[in-house]
């Protein structure tokens, strides 16, 4: 059996119900709150997730969750590739012992400097920030213990 994405219902009964809800969608009386969100698909389906009829039953049981799952899928992996590229620029062969929190900190610092409109050459860390950079925070516990010996 071929693997399927997680957003596809696992059993045929649920898949059939999803198809029926899709076909019934044009005939439904859509609540005013959902009509106000027609231009934003995620907001529309979020409203439809809890929309009920006159009897208090959900208008759509499967379709809103399915639509939100589909909308959450990335349309490309370009952003992931950019992040991997940044990590590779930070974690060079000379700095291969950097631990994940340090790499994350470097990436966040880069974003913060760029967002602030300045560049890395004009940034001046204060004494408190400098005191936080120790072997333990940069390389992790093992490196700090080796340095102390």
TrEMBL record:
Residues 61-107 form the HAT C-terminal dimerisation domain. Coiled coil: none annotated. Transmembrane segments: none annotated. It holds the Pfam family Dimer_Tnp_hAT. GO terms for molecular function: protein dimerization activity. This is Teichoic acid glycerol-phosphate primase. The lineage of its organism: Eukaryota, Metazoa, Ecdysozoa, Arthropoda, Hexapoda.
